[in-house]
């Protein structure tokens, strides 16, 4: 059985967990300890052994030991091609891979810049980061004008951006009514059977730590099926 090392507030670990459930793969989930004051110290020995970056997620599948959520996505698709989470045609697959990469490398840096600035929303750096995130939301909303999912079919790209945008919301980069298609997409994502249990666990953890939970997520986990 595969073993996934993740953490309660690991966006990247949650991405992999959702993908494993979507593919119907049996796996053991190991949540590494996290303390608000000490963070992940002391680091889990298996995470340290496999990942020189000392971070989750780490996936172990027999002799295969890999880290980085995107690399894990690629391995899962090769090892368990059904149901597919990348398009089959090369051009469509390249477009979906680009969207997955942009979630991490183009959108998420805005979220990183917001970390630590929640109590200073008018700080020029926070304003610039929210503006950057808003521009990206508009771009994704436009993509959804003629489709249900970001790359046409449901793919890893949807999983990646959903989790990144969830963390964006937590940091103040809020989705608004100017992106109605993206709001509807977020609701479809939240209610997927592979997604809802993962984000429900994350919401419960946030509540247990007395951290804010985005209102739309709190409503979804309390009343699955509720509208925006």
Describe this structure in words.
- The chain has 228 residues and is an alpha+beta fold.
- It has two domains: 2-79, Glutaredoxin (3-Layer(aba) Sandwich), CATH 3.40.30; 90-222, Glutathione S-transferase Yfyf (Class Pi), Chain A, domain 2, CATH 1.20.1050.
- Helix content is 53%, strand content 8%.
- It contains nine helices and four strands, in the order E-H-E-H-E-E-H-H-H-H-H-H-H.
- It has helices at 11-22, 45-50, 69-79, 90-114, 124-143, 156-170, 180-190, 196-208, 215-222; strands at 2-6, 27-31, 58-61, 64-67.
- The chain has a four-stranded mixed beta sheet with strand order 2-1-3-4.
- A hairpin with a 2-residue loop joins strand 3 (58-61) and strand 4.
- Helix 1 packs antiparallel against helix 6 (156-170), helix 4 packs antiparallel against helix 5 (124-143) and helix 4 runs parallel beside helix 6.
- The longest helix has 25 residues, at 90-114.
- The protein starts with a strand and ends in a 6-residue tail after the last helix.
What features would you highlight for this structure?
8% strand, 2 domains, Glutathione S-transferase Yfyf (Class Pi), Chain A, domain 2, Glutaredoxin, alpha+beta, 9 helices, 228 residues
Oligomer type: single chain
**How many β-strands, per DSSP?**
4
Let me know the largest β-sheet. 4 strands, mixed
Q: List low-confidence stretches.
A: none
Count the domains: 2
Using only CA atoms, what is the Rg? 17 Å
Distance between the termini: 38 Å
Molecular shape: globular
Helix and strand element order: EHEHEEHHHHHHH
Query: What is the tally of helical segments?
Result: 9
Strand content: 5-15%
- Which second-level CATH architecture of the largest domain applies? Up-down Bundle
Residue-averaged pLDDT:
93
Helices and strands: which structural class? alpha+beta
CATH class of the largest domain: Mainly Alpha
CATH topology of the largest domain: Glutathione S-transferase Yfyf (Class Pi), Chain A, domain 2
Name the helicity range: 40-55%
In the sheet with the most strands, the strands line up as: 2-1-3-4
């Amino acid at each position: 059985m595969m073993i996934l090392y993740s953490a309660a507030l690991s966006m990247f670990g949650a991405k992999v967990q959702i993908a494993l459930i979507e593919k119907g793969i049996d796996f053991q989930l190991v949540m590494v300890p996290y303390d608000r004051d000490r963070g992940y110290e002391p680091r889990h020995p298996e995470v340290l052994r496999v990942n020189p970056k000392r971070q989750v997620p780490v996936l172990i599948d027999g002799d295969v030991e890999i880290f980085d959520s995107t690399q894990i996505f690629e391995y899962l698709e090769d090892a368990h091609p059904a149901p597919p989470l990348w398009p089959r045609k090369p051009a469509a697959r390249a477009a979906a891979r680009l969207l997955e990469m942009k979630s991490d490398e183009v959108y998420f840096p805005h979220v990183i810049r917001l970390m630590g600035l929640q109590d200073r929303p008018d700080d020029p750096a926070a304003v610039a980061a929210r503006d950057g995130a808003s521009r990206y939301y508009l771009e994704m909303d436009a993509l959804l004008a003629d489709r249900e999912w970001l790359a046409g079919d449901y793919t890893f790209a949807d999983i990646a951006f959903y989790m990144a945008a969830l963390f964006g919301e937590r940091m103040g980069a809020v989705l608004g009514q100017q992106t109605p298609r993206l709001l509807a997409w977020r609701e479809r994502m939240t209610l997927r059977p592979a997604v809802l249990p993962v984000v429900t666990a994350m919401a419960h953890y946030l509540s247990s730590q007395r951290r804010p939970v985005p209102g739309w997520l709190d409503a979804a986990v309390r009343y699955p099926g509720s509208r925006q």
